[in-house]
Design brief:
binds adenosine-5'-triphosphate, alpha/beta, six-stranded mixed β-sheet, 263 residues, 10 strands, four-stranded antiparallel β-sheet, Rossmann fold, 41% helix, binds magnesium ion
Length: 263
């Protein structure tokens, strides 16, 4: 167990709407090794984002986590209260969302948002936080760090916004980073640049990653192991190489076919 950073066991997240139950996450289990990149792949609506939100206990009504465990370093986060979870979110577990535009607050500058993220979790003065924020903006290869620091989100390109989001996710040296479709909203060339950046960061930093994508091509490039989701369930999981060479499930095969069709 000591080599696992996250163990999801029999997780169930359901929506209760007008007499109907939608089983968005339906009894899934997987675990992520320390310093490994684990992929969660599946078509749109299969339950990937709900899985990520459930891990951080961020599911909003009418959604509800109705069963299972999320063991982070052996501790079940689903048993913990908000105060405990606030100490985990953005500090030990960071998340980068699909849409950088919706994750950044339009009324604060990039610098204000990153320093806020730092001071929420670290004992550090304003100047120290500012220095750290700039350092991390440099680390994600933002060329004009000083300018971007003082810019508002709408002043930045999609790629730069996503770099800023990645910097913000890394500033508190998290143990686990959840990347939920981190390149889906970007143009293809920018997508490739962000994937290169993520590869570089993963190689350099001691990070464990949950990498979510609907694109098996991206998952194959980034992940050691992968689980394939379909309609709330994991239909197949294992080493990425093995699944690429010998997919067993029909939905896995369909996802792989769509990558082949594109390339
Ligand atoms: N507010 C809601 N009310 C009812 N059902 C919902 C709600 N939000 C999500 N769901 C259900 O949960 C399912 C899983 O959604 P989720 O966002 O996790 O999919 P996803 O795999 O991340 O898709 P995408 O690739 O489009 O991001 C959806 O198919 C939908 O049926
Ligand atoms: Mg999603």
């Amino acid at each position: 167990m000591e080599n696992k950073i996250l163990e999801v066991k029999n997780l169930k997240t359901y929506f209760y709407a007008s007499g109907n139950i939608v089983k968005a996450v339906d009894d899934i289990s997987f675990d992520i090794g320390k310093n490994k990149v684990f992929g969660l792949v599946g078509e749109s609506g299969s339950g990937k984002t709900l899985t990520a939100l459930s891990i951080l206990k961020l599911v909003a009504p009418p959604g509800k986590i109705v069963g299972g465990k999320v063991l982070f370093d052996g501790i079940n986060l689903l048993d913990k209260d908000e105060a405990y979870l606030r100490g985990i979110r953005g500090a030990k577990i960071a998340i980068v969302f699909q849409e950088p535009a919706s994750a950044l607050d339009p009324v604060f500058t990039i610098g204000e948002q990153i320093t806020e993220a730092i001071t929420a979790h670290q004992k550090i003065n304003k100047l120290g936080a500012e220095k750290l924020a700039m350092e991390f903006l440099g680390r994600v290869h933002i060329p004009d760090v000083k300018k971007v620091y003082h810019d508002y989100p709408h002043q930045l390109s999609g790629g730069t916004k996503q770099r800023a989001m990645i910097a913000m996710a890394l500033v508190n040296s998290p143990e686990l980073v959840i990347l939920d479709e981190p390149t889906t909203a970007l143009d293809v060339t920018i997508q490739a640049q962000i994937l290169d950046l993520l590869e570089e960061i993963i190689a350099k930093e001691k990070l464990s990653i949950l990498f979510i994508s609907h694109d098996f091509g991206i998952i194959a490039k980034m992940c050691d192991r992968v689980a394939v989701m379909y309609k709330g369930k994991i239909v197949e999981s294992g080493a990425t190489k093995q699944i690429l060479n010998d997919p067993k499930d029909k939905y896995t095969i369909a996802l792989l076919e769509s990558v082949k069709a594109l390339s």
